[in-house]
Amino acid sequence: MNIIENNMEMDNLQNGLNKSEILQFIINNGMIDINDIQNSMEAMKREELLKKHQYKIWQGKDGKWYTYLPDDSKKEGRRLVKRTEEKSLEDVVVSYWKQLGEVHTLKSTFYEWAGEKLRYGEIEKNTYDRYETDFNRFFKNGFENTNIKNITEDSLEDFIKSTINRKQLTSKAYSGMRTLIIGIFKYAKKHKYSDISIHTFFGDLNLSKKIFAKKVKCAEKEVFTEEEIKSIVKYINGKELRIRELGILLAIYTGMRPGELSALKPSDIRRNDRTIHVQRSEVKYKDDNCKTVISVKNFPKSDAGDRYLLLNDKAYDTIRKILWLNPFGEYLFQDEKTHKRITENGFNHKLSRICIAVNIPVRTMHKLRKTYGTTLIDHGVDDSIITAQMGHADIKTTRQYYYYSNQSNDEKLNQLNKACII
User: Fold this and answer.
1) By the 8 A CB rule, do 269 and 319 touch?
2) How far is CA 134 from CA 131, 181, 374, in A?
3) Superfamily (CATH H level) for 73-206
4) Which stretch of DSSP H or E encloses residue 162?
5) Where are the beta strands (DSSP E) in 107-158?
6) What confidence category does residue 355 fall into, taking pLDDT thresholds of 50, 70 and 90?
7) Which listed residue, of 7, 8, 125, 368, carries a Cα 20 to 30 Å from 62's Cα?
8) Average per-residue pLDDT in the chain?
9) Statement: residue 31 has pLDDT above 70
């Protein structure tokens, strides 16, 4: 049968037959090869399953191919798999996800969702690691192996409330769990694993404020007092200039996040308008061998974090000293001997030793940032300036999470006495 006859025959068929009958006619007349279609479908399914795999597939120095598969029996939550050939290793991966895919559990759906976000660059590896840690924290009690199709709105509500109660979650910790639930169930609804409309569910969910644990923070542990800050500054200024100590001084005078401080480059300094362009941050994540990697990413912690930070006189003077000690480094803060970038942990260790030296309680670099925010508020600095300096989108964030009175009791009593008009 030639092409013209085929087309005429097809026209006649379409006038009186349904699609299945037409398809059967095409197959019977050898117009398409059913084996080719089946092979193409299997190849597409294989590619789809490989995309679900959240771990890297790599070739080792020994020529063998490696990857990880999730395994709850292992401490790290995964096991190493190796094969001589790449295809053989991919076969293992495909077999694992094919078997797991027959039942879409909460856990498998989480890894599909988080893996997709990582693959498309919607999240960074350090965020993926945090999601995985939170998932194990909140869901690893048997609930993670539940077929997501069998999870009802009632059972999900019961799980949320019982988890908050059992783990004594604060509202902040709960928000982390909520983020995962929304992501997992949006993905599940899209792929028809579940019928739950998660935004509607949370819109209807009524959680009393009393259900959350209250975390009482002691001001003495959250910020340095004015006298303690003076002791630290005096100690640093009384010693030979060292790059780490100057970094701590700059944090005191600017309130920068320690990860931002560690990622600064000389090119970020704008002397004409006395500002620093804060545009990078240090990040930590686990590599394929489960080792912690510390690196610098060309973005700040948040959108508001990308800012031009004004340098007061003391901060500007500190910058000049830093550049005198390290005039040619790629990063503003590099070890004098190794010339390696000083990490956030490096600054924290140095601050701890200084606290011990001046005989005050040990606190972290982040507490210096809270102290800076507190000082700006106490001295009546305009809200717009405070948010710009802190890298916050809203002054509410500064006041709610960064403000603690750090004045001495004598100063507090003095203010109360002045306020007493009776």
Assistant:
1) yes
2) 5, 11, 30
3) Tyrosine recombinase, N-terminal domain (1.10.150.130)
4) helix 153-166
5) none
6) very high
7) 125
8) 86
9) no
Q: What are the strands, taking DSSP E only, across 221-332?
A: 269-270, 275-278, 281-286, 292-297, 307-310
| Range 180-193 average pLDDT | 95
Q: Label the pairing between strands 65-70 and 78-83.
A: antiparallel
The Cα–Cα gap between 103 and 114 comes to: 18
How far is Cα 280 from Cα 277, in angstroms, rounded to an integer?
Answer: 9
Task: Return the number of other C-beta atoms located less than 10 Å from residue 416's C-beta.
Answer: 9
The pLDDT of 399-407, averaged and rounded, is 75
- Alpha-carbon distance of 420 to 25, in angstroms, equals 97
In b/e form, how buried is each residue of 267-276, taking b as 16+ CB within 10 angstroms? ebbeeeebbb
Give CA 319 to chain center in angstroms.
Answer: 30
Residue 50: count other Cβ atoms within 10 Å of its Cβ: 13
DSSP 20-82: HHHHHHHHHTTSS-HHHHHHHHHHHHHHHHHHH--S--EE-TTS-EEEEEE-TTSTTSEEEEE
106-119 vs 125-139: helix axis angle to the nearest 10?
Answer: 170
CATH H superfamily, domain 220-416: Intergrase catalytic core (1.10.443.10)
Residue range 370-389, pLDDT digits in tens: 999 989 988 888 999 989 99
The confidence score (pLDDT) of residue 38 equals: 72
Where in the chain are the domains?
1-33, 73-206, 220-416
Torsion-angle region of 169 (φ positive above 0: left; ψ -120 to 50: alpha; else: beta) = beta
Supply 7's token pair: 């087309």
Amino acid sitting at position 311: L
Burial of 68 (0-12, 13-18, 19+ CB in 10 A): buried
The mean per-residue pLDDT over the stretch 290-300 comes to 86
> pLDDT at residue 76 above 80?
no
166, burial (CB in 10 Å: exposed 0-12, middle 13-18, buried 19+): exposed
CA-nearest of 342, 312, 310 to 326 is: 342
Tokens, residue 414: 């003095």
Top-confidence residue, 402 or 80? 80
Q: What is the pLDDT, as a whole number, of residue 215?
A: 76
Distances (CA, A) of 251 to 244, 318, 348: 11, 10, 11
Distance CA 335, CA 356 (A): 22
Tell me what the mean pLDDT of segment 22-41 comes to.
69
Size (the chain), residues: 422
